[in-house]
């Protein structure tokens, strides 16, 4: 058999099952860290609705735990929904698309 660094090959039906398991694990852990977090994950994009000051801790968690589980968050492909986007922009989080809103 072949060892793969990338995980499941594209088109393999196992990919959907494994992706869902990883997403649920990450979503549960994020929810445990902060009950206010809503976790509507889609593809490789993460989306939060949190108070801006909690953002850095959650993104750092995703980068650390996500990599271990084969989930590679890409800030430039991600949307971050928060109550006050001004706080994030002031902190220099420019690689993440920051939008104002509530769910």
Shape: elongated
Distance between the termini: 46 Å
**Largest sheet features:** 3 strands, parallel
Based on DSSP secondary structure assignment, what is the total number of beta strands?
Answer: 3
Order of helices and strands: HEHEHE
Low-confidence stretches: none
Query: What integer is the average pLDDT?
Result: 66
Identify the quaternary structure here: single chain
Q: How many DSSP helices?
A: 3
Helix content: 25-40%
- Structural domain count: 1
Gyration radius, rounded:
15 Å
Helix/strand/pairing category: alpha/beta
Proportion of beta-strand residues:
5-15%
Biggest sheet, strands in spatial order? 1-2-3
Topology record:
Layout: H1 14-33, E1 49-50, H2 55-68, E2 79-82, H3 85-90, E3 97-100
Parallel strand pairs: 1-2, 2-3
Helix pairs in contact: 1-2
